[in-house]
Amino acid sequence: MKSQILAACLLLASPLCFPQAAPVSLQVKLNEDKGPLKPMWAWFGYDEPNYTYMKDGKKLLSELAALSPVPVYVRAHNLMTSGDGTPALKWGSTGMYSEDSNGKPIYNWTLVDKIFDSYVERGMKPLAQIGFMPEALSVKPQPYRHHWAPGTPYPEIMTGWAYPPNDYKKWAELIYQWVRHSVERYGQKEVESWYWELWNEPDGFYLIAPNVEQEYFKMYDYAADAVKRALPSARMGGPHTAHGGKFFDHFIQHCLNDRNHATGAKGAPVDFLAYHAKGRPTLVDGVVQMSMKTHFKNIDDGLAIVASYPQLKGIPVIIGESDPEGCAACGMSTNPENAYRNGTLYASYTAASIAREYDLASARGVNLVGVVNWSFEFEDQPWFAGFRDLATNGVNKPVLNVFRMLGMMTGNRVGVGGDGAYDAASILKSGVLGKRTDINALAAKSSKGATVLLWNYHDKDIIDAGSPVSVTIQGIPASQVVMTHYRIDQEHSNSYAAWKKMGSPAQPSAAQIAELHRSSQLATLGNPQTLQVRDQQVVVEMQLPRQAVSFIQLSY
Hints:
Radius of gyration: 24 Å
Largest sheet: 10 strands, mixed
Signal peptide: 1-21
Family: Belongs to the glycosyl hydrolase 39 family.
Number of strands: 24
Domain Glycosyl hydrolases family 39 N-terminal catalytic: 27-519
EC number: 3.2.1.37
Helix content: 25-40%
Organism: Roseateles saccharophilus (Pseudomonas saccharophila)
Number of helices: 13
């Protein structure tokens, strides 16, 4: 009987089954202004660009565009790759370039326009990636297309699309024509609001180029020159390295000091800098264990390099992929350590990590403007297959509700204090693996109210009743407020939990799908309440389960 009760407790994560942790007290200080809350979370990306204009892709884009009043930026691979637009995992194509029998260029903007139209008509902005190499321009065109599947070693995807150009003048002219076409189609003002970038993780070129850095720098010089000739006011940058390491540092030095391969002048134009940062989850005794420490170290390494160049003070920095690990298309059937993606662990990790990225950037004095969550959706895949995505078969996953919460945060970031043991520096040093979970908050104020994003996070994927939390919000300039409390946990804003309660159907019925859609929406914890303000403060008390996320919205 005891074993049956324990099994039921583990399944339901009932508060009655677990001892209560020590209470946690947090103070939100509305008078402690930390400057504008930059919407650096409003950036998303994915490998497969042709999903953009498919049924579930268009639905998800509309959801992302509606998150907040700020423009959402979107980054996609394979915008220049040869092919007919047929998608596959880690693959996509637009067929924008080919040549006739005499080697004369043929430009075809149909599919790339279809992709960018999907963004622009929703008020979204492309982080326009110049990549990858069209077959007719690849120095090693065959084999061209890869047929990667989860579990396949990464080097096997390095086929003809991944190689440098065989003719730099033709390649630069293609880029020039693409930018000029974009200006003609969308208008100069619109295209000036985009970011243009070259390639993705060029430090992976070591598999195909003996002098990887110089090869990339040459490509960058020609690409940047082409972009600027087509639109001098365009924003161009890079290098989107896999890490903020030596390659990233050497790229900056090249842009500042080296001879330009395309123009012969000193240096190359760079309007923003970009690199990637990932964590590395593992399985420990059958339990997923995240590595926020590794993720933060990769972020901080890149920020430190940017900060070491005083002449680049204030330059925009984009973390072009910032995720718990590195393979969105690797589901949990081949990578069981990725099982965190369906449930609330992905949500609490996202809330806790994005909040600390403000602090990491502030500590280095770097202008971090964008943090790309490399998650979108995969068409026609099994339900909740454990891909790193925001929706499955058109149904939003719990993590998307974190971005809905962030989208309601406007105004200036304010101070948060309390008796929690974790901050950005301590996580950077040792992760979140102690006995105490990470209970903390990100808060903001505007002229009409205040918002507080709270989480109860731990690197180990264990769900329990969590802790009682008392949040004192100080400095409220009103006599009363209306409080709305939103929640992501096992009972709220959680389509995955609803799917499991249905018995995890491989083919849900129409009625079940409708219920999954309902359960995927951001849900409130009770009804809105009117609270009286005493001494310019209110106190909000709650029980916050482990791996849950709460959002308090005060209107006054």
